[in-house]
C-alpha cells in the first residue's frame, strides 16, 4: 500500500507482510523493504518516489501488529485499501541449530510452529540460493557445495500463507571426501593416493581386512599418498579415508576395497612326455591367486598355458630345444612370477638327409646329418626277410654287410637323456602334377602318415618358389614360362621333426606366349604372319577368327602364311605356342582386314549419245566404288557410295574398257576389271524428207561412224510406220501413209544386238 506520510514519520519494525505487488502507489512516498529481520537495529526506510529507480520494487511494508493506525503529526493518514489486518499467516519459526555432517548438505532444527503444515528451508552463500520444503524439524538442504559457509533461514507454511523468514543462522558444509586410487605394488603392500581436497590441512587413512578380522591400521598425513606395508598376500582389504580442516572437523569419508597381489608359486615340478613332446607342470598353490600361467621360453619360441588349478600341460614342444619354465600367479591386483625357472631339455630331432650307398657290392654305407642335443645315434637296417641289425655310434655314419637280392629298410634315431628322437614322416611318393601352365603348376599327392605340414619347393637354378600347406596339394604360382624346375615335396611334423631327404621331380612349365610383330600381304594376296619366338622346340599355330570361320596355319619358325581368306572380312589373329609341357596363352590379338569383294555383276546402259549408266551388285566389305571408262579418245571416271554411276562425255561408236575399284572403310582397294564396252553408233546427220506421190515419203540421211544398219520410224495419230533400208543404203521409202496427219520422224542406228536406240533427234512432217 502507499499513504501520504509527512516527513519525519517513524515506522515501527515489521512483523507481518501486509502489502502485495498489485497496490496502487500514491505520489508522495513509497515504502521499500531492506531487511527481513526482527532485530531492533534494522528499520524500514521511507524514500520519496523521485529518489528510487524502480517503483515496482517498492511494494512491501511492515507493521508491528496485525492492526495498526498510522497518524502523521498534523492530521490523519488515508488508507485506500482498507484495514491493515492480516491475521492468516503462520508465525515465524526460530532456528535452534544448523550443522553439516555431509559435504553437500546442512541439517536444520527448529521449534514447531502451530498451524504450519510444512516449512521452507533456504540456504544462501552469496552466489546461489537453494530452497527445499520439508514436513517437520529437523530438515536437510541438499545439493550444497563442500566447505562453504551458508546463511540458513526457515519459513513456516500453511494453507493461508507463509511467514516471514526466521532469523538467519550460519552453518558451513564439511570437507569433501578424497577420491582414492589404490593398487598393490607387491604381495605385502597397498599404495593409496588421492588428489588435494579444498580447505583440507590433513587426511586420515585406515585399512582393515574386508572380513573384519584382525587389527585396523590408521595413519594421519598431510601428504596425498600413503603406503601400507606388512600386509597379507592375496587378501582383500577395505580402505577408508577422510580430510579435516583447520578446526579439526572431519569431512566426508570414501571407502574402497583392494586385494594384495599373490605370492609367487613355489615347488615347481616338470614331467616330460618324450613320445608326445609335451610336459606337465605342477606347483604349490598360493593364497589369493585366481589364475596361473605357465611360460616355457627358448631362444626362438615361447609356449604358454593358463589354468585356475595347480597344474598345466604344455603341448607342441619342439624337439632339440632347451626350455626355461616359470609360473605366474595372478589376481585382479597383479601377478607374481616364480623367482627361479625350471629347465626342460626335449629329445633330439630326427636326423635328416639320410643316404645309403652300396660301395663296394655287399657293403652298405649309411650317413646322416648331426642334430642338436643328440648324444649318440642308433641306425637300424632291416631286410625284407625280417632280419634286423643296428649300429650304435656318436658319429654320423655306419656300415653294414648286405646280400644281393634283398630289399633293406633304413632308419636312424638320435638319443639324449630325455629319450629317443621321433621318427620323421615319410616323403610323399605319388606326386602328380594335375595342371601345368606357363606360370603355374598344381600338384597333389597322397597324405603321408605322421606328416602335419608339407613344403613344396621349385628351384630352377637361379630362383626358388615354395609353398607350405597342411593339405596334400600345392599350387606353385609366379613361375617363369618355358622353364625347367626341380620340384620337391617335404613332410614335417611338430613331434617327429622333418624329412628333407625327399627326391625331386623335374617339371617344365608351358611355353611363353608369342608376340606378333607384323602381318603382311605378298603379291599373290597371301597373308604372312610374323611373331617373336622365345621358346625351345615349340610349334606355333596362327588362328584367324572372323564371322566367316576359322583359318589356321602352323610353323616351327617365326612366321607362317594364311591362304584362301575370304574377301571383305575382318579377322582377329592370334598365335599360340605348344610344346610337350603344354600350350601357352594366346598372344595379344591383332586385327586383320581383307580387301573388299568385287561386284558379281556389272551392267552398262546407254542413256544418251554421250551419257551411259554403269550399275553393279554390292561387293562385301566395300564402302565406296570408283568407276573408270577408258579409250584412245579419253577417260571418264566417277567415285560414289552407291552401286550405280552416270558417266558423260562418251564418244559414240568407240570401244571402251570398263574398270571398277571397290574400297573399304579403311582404304583397302580391290581392282575389278570387266570386258570392254562399245558405245552406241552415232545418230545420222542431215536427215531430209522427200514426197513420193500422194501417199509416200522418202527419208534420206548421211551415214554416221560406227553403224551400218538404220531404222526409220514415223509416228502419227493414225499409226506407226517403220522402214528398214537395205544394208549400205542411206535412205528409206515409206508408202501408203494416210494423208492429212502430222508425223514425227526419227532415224536411229541399230546395234548388233538388234536394239534400236531411241535418243536420236526427231523431225516433224505433215
Shape descriptor: flat
Query: How many DSSP helices?
Result: 0
Low-confidence stretches: 1-86
Radius of gyration using CA atoms only: 64 Å
Total count of strands: 64
Distance N to C terminus: 146 Å
- Report helical residue fraction: under 10%
Task: Estimate the strand proportion.
Answer: over 45%
User: Structural class given helices, strands, pairing?
Assistant: mainly beta
Oligomerization category of the chains in this entry = single chain
Largest sheet: 5 strands, antiparallel
**Average pLDDT rating:** 83
Protein name: Fibronectin type III domain-containing protein 7
Domain Fibronectin type-III: 89-176, 177-263, 264-352, 510-597
Pfam family, one: fn3
InterPro entries: FN3_dom, FN3_sf, Ig-like_fold
Q: What key attributes describe this structure?
A:
FN3_sf; Ig-like_fold; five-stranded antiparallel beta sheet; disordered N terminus; FN3_dom; single chain; mainly beta; Fibronectin type III domain-containing protein 7; 766 residues
Helix and strand topology:
Elements: E1 16-17, E2 29-32, E3 45-48, E4 62-63, E5 95-99, E6 105-110, E7 118-124, E8 129-134, E9 139-142, E10 149-158, E11 161-162, E12 169-172, E13 180-186, E14 189-194, E15 202-209, E16 217-221, E17 225-228, E18 236-244, E19 250-259, E20 266-273, E21 278-284, E22 291-297, E23 302-307, E24 311-314, E25 322-331, E26 334-337, E27 342-345, E28 355-358, E29 363-367, E30 376-383, E31 388-393, E32 397-401, E33 408-416, E34 419-420, E35 432-436, E36 441-444, E37 453-459, E38 464-469, E39 473-476, E40 484-493, E41 497-499, E42 504-508, E43 515-521, E44 527-532, E45 539-546, E46 549-555, E47 559-562, E48 570-579, E49 582-583, E50 590-593, E51 602-606, E52 612-616, E53 624-631, E54 634-640, E55 644-647, E56 655-663, E57 669-678, E58 685-692, E59 696-702, E60 710-716, E61 719-723, E62 731-734, E63 743-749, E64 762-765
Antiparallel strand pairs: 1-4, 2-3, 5-6, 6-9, 7-8, 7-10, 10-11, 10-12, 13-14, 14-17, 15-16, 15-18, 18-19, 20-21, 21-24, 22-23, 22-25, 25-26, 25-27, 28-29, 29-32, 30-31, 30-33, 33-34, 35-36, 36-39, 37-38, 37-40, 40-41, 40-42, 43-44, 44-47, 45-46, 45-48, 48-49, 48-50, 51-52, 52-55, 53-54, 53-56, ...
Amino acid at each position: 500500500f502507499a499513504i501520504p506520510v509527512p516527513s519525519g514519520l517513524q515506522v515501527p519494525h515489521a512483523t507481518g507482510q501486509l502489502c502485495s505487488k498489485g497496490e496502487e502507489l500514491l505520489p508522495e512516498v513509497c515504502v521499500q523493504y531492506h531487511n527481513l529481520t526482527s532485530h531492533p537495529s534494522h528499520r524500514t526506510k521511507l524514500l520519496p518516489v523521485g529518489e528510487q529507480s524502480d517503483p515496482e520494487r517498492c511494494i512491501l511494508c511492515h507493521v508491528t501488529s496485525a492492526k495498526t493506525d498510522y497518524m502523521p503529526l498534523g492530521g490523519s493518514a488515508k488508507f485506500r485499501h482498507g484495514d491493515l489486518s492480516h491475521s492468516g499467516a503462520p508465525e515465524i519459526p526460530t532456528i535452534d541449530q544448523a550443522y553439516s555432517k555431509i559435504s553437500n548438505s546442512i541439517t536444520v532444527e527448529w521449534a514447531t510452529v502451530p498451524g504450519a503444515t510444512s516449512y521452507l528451508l533456504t540456504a544462501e552463500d552469496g552466489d546461489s540460493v537453494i530452497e527445499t520444503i520439508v514436513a517437520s524439524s529437523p530438515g536437510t538442504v541438499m545439493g550444497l557445495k563442500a566447505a562453504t559457509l551458508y546463511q540458513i533461514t526457515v519459513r513456516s507454511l500453511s494453507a493461508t500463507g507463509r511467514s516471514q523468514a526466521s532469523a538467519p543462522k550460519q552453518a558451513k558444509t564439511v570437507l569433501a571426501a578424497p577420491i582414492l586410487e589404490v593398487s598393490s605394488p607387491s604381495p605385502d603392500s597397498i599404495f593409496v593416493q588421492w588428489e588435494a581436497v579444498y580447505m583440507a590441512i590433513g587426511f586420515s587413512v585406515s585399512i582393515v581386512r574386508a572380513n573384519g578380522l584382525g587389527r585396523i591400521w590408521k595413519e594421519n598425513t598431510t601428504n596425498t599418498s600413503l603406503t601400507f606395508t606388512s600386509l597379507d598376500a592375496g587378501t582383500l582389504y577395505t580402505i577408508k579415508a577422510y580430510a579435516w580442516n583447520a578446526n579439526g572437523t572431519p569431512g566426508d569419508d570414501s571407502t574402497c576395497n583392494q586385494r594384495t597381489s599373490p605370492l609367487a608359486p613355489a615347488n615347481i615340478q616338470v614331467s616330460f612326455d618324450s613320445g608326445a613332446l609335451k610336459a606337465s607342470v605342477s606347483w604349490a598353490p598360493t593364497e589369493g591367486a585366481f589364475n596361473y600361467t605357465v611360460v616355457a621360453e627358448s631362444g626362438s619360441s615361447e609356449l604358454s598355458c593358463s589354468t585356475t588349478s595347480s597344474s598345466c600341460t604344455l603341448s607342441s614342444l619342439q624337439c632339440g630345444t632347451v626350455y626355461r619354465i616359470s609360473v605366474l600367479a595372478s589376481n585382479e591386483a597383479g601377478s607374481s612370477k616364480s623367482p627361479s625357472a625350471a629347465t626342460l631339455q626335449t629329445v633330439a630331432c630326427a636326423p635328416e638327409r639320410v643316404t645309403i650307398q652300396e660301395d663296394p657290392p655287399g657293403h652298405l654305407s649309411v650317413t646322416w646329418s648331426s642334430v642338436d642335443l643328440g648324444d649318440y645315434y642308433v641306425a637300424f637296417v632291416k631286410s625284407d626277410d625280417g632280419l634286423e641289425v643296428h649300429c650304435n655310434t656318436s658319429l654320423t655314419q655306419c656300415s653294414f654287410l648286405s646280400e644281393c637280392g634283398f630289399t633293406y629298410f633304413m632308419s636312424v634315431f638320435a638319443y639324449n637323456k630325455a629319450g629317443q628322437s621321433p621318427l620323421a614322416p615319410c616323403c610323399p611318393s605319388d606326386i602328380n602334377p594335375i595342371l601345368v601352365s606357363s606360370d603355374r603348376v598344381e600338384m597333389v599327392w597322397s597324405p603321408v602318415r605322421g606328416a602335419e605340414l608339407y613344403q613344396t619347393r621349385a628351384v630352377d637354378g637361379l630362383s626358388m618358389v615354395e609353398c607350405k600347406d597342411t593339405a596334400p596339394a600345392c599350387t606353385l604360382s609366379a613361375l617363369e614360362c618355358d622353364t625347367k624346375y626341380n620340384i620337391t615335396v617335404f613332410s614335417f611334423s611338430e613331434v617327429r621333426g622333418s624329412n628333407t631327404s625327399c627326391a625331386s621331380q623335374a617339371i617344365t612349365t608351358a611355353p611363353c606366349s608369342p608376340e606378333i610383330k607384323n602381318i603382311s600381304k605378298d603379291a599373290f594376296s597371301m597373308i604372312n604372319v610374323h611373331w617373336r619366338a622365345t621358346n625351345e622346340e615349340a610349334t606355333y599355330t596362327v588362328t584367324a577368327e572372323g564371322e566367316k570361320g576359322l583359318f589356321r596355319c602352323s610353323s616351327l619358325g617365326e612366321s607362317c602364311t594364311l591362304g584362301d581368306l575370304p574377301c571383305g572380312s575382318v579377322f582377329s589373329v592370334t598365335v599360340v605356342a605348344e610344346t610337350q609341357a603344354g600350350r601357352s596363352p594366346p598372344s595379344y590379338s591383332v586385327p586383320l582386314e581383307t580387301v573388299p569383294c568385287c561386284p558379281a555383276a556389272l551392267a552398262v546402259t546407254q542413256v544418251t549419245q554421250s551419257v551411259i549408266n554403269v550399275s553393279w551388285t554390292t561387293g562385301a566389305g566395300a564402302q565406296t566404288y570408283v568407276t573408270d571408262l577408258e579409250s584412245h579418245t579419253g577417260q571418264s571416271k566417277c567415285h560414289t557410295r552407291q552401286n550405280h554411276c552416270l558417266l558423260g562425255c562418251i564418244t559414240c561408236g568407240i570401244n571402251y574398257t570398263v574398270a571398277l575399284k571397290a574400297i573399304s572403310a579403311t582404304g583397302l582397294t580391290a581392282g575389278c576389271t570387266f570386258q570392254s564396252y562399245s558405245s552406241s553408233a552415232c545418230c545420222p546427220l542431215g536427215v531430209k524428207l522427200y514426197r513420193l506421190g500422194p501417199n509416200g515419203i522418202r527419208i534420206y540421211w548421211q551415214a554416221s561412224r560406227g553403224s551400218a544398219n538404220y531404222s526409220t520410224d514415223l509416228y502419227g495419230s493414225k499409226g506407226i510406220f517403220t522402214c528398214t533400208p537395205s544394208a549400205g543404203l542411206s535412205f528409206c521409202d515409206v508408202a501408203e501413209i494416210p494423208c492429212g496427219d502430222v508425223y514425227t520422224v526419227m532415224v536411229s542406228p541399230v546395234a548388233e544386238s538388234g536394239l534400236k536406240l531411241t535418243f536420236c533427234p526427231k523431225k516433224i512432217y505433215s
